[in-house]
Amino acid sequence: MTHAAGVTTIANQAWDVTGSCVLTGEPTSDRGVRPAHPFDPESGTWGALQLVARYAELTVDRRAFDGGFAAIDANRQAHQFTLGVNWCPAAVVKCHVNFERTAFQGGYSGSAAVTRRPENVIFVRAQLAF
Question: Distance between CA 24 and CA 56 in Å, rounded?
C-alpha cells in the first residue's frame, strides 16, 4: 500500500469456519440447495430448508497502524458469528434470513483505543437465479 509515509506491505490475517444442515434432506453443492419437492401447499411440499452458522476472526497487521493506514485508535481484531435460515421454495428462488454479530477488541499497543460496542445486523434477502 502507498501512503504519504511511504510504501508498506500489510498482511492482515483472517479465517472462518462455516457449517450448514439441510433439514429437508436435499444434498448441497457449490451451486446451493435444489429442493426435491418445490413449494406446493396443496401437495404438502414446502421446498428445501437449510440452517447455517459461521464464525470468523480478523486481525489487522500492526504495520497498518505504524504506517498511518489505520487510525491509531481503531480496533485490531474483529470476531463475527452468523446464524441463518435459507428457504428454497423452487430451484430458482432462495430466501435468506441471517443474524450477524461482530465484536471488536483491542487497539494498537500503546494507543488509547477504546473497544467498540458489538454490532448486530439482520439481513433478509430474496434471490432469483436462472
Answer: 27
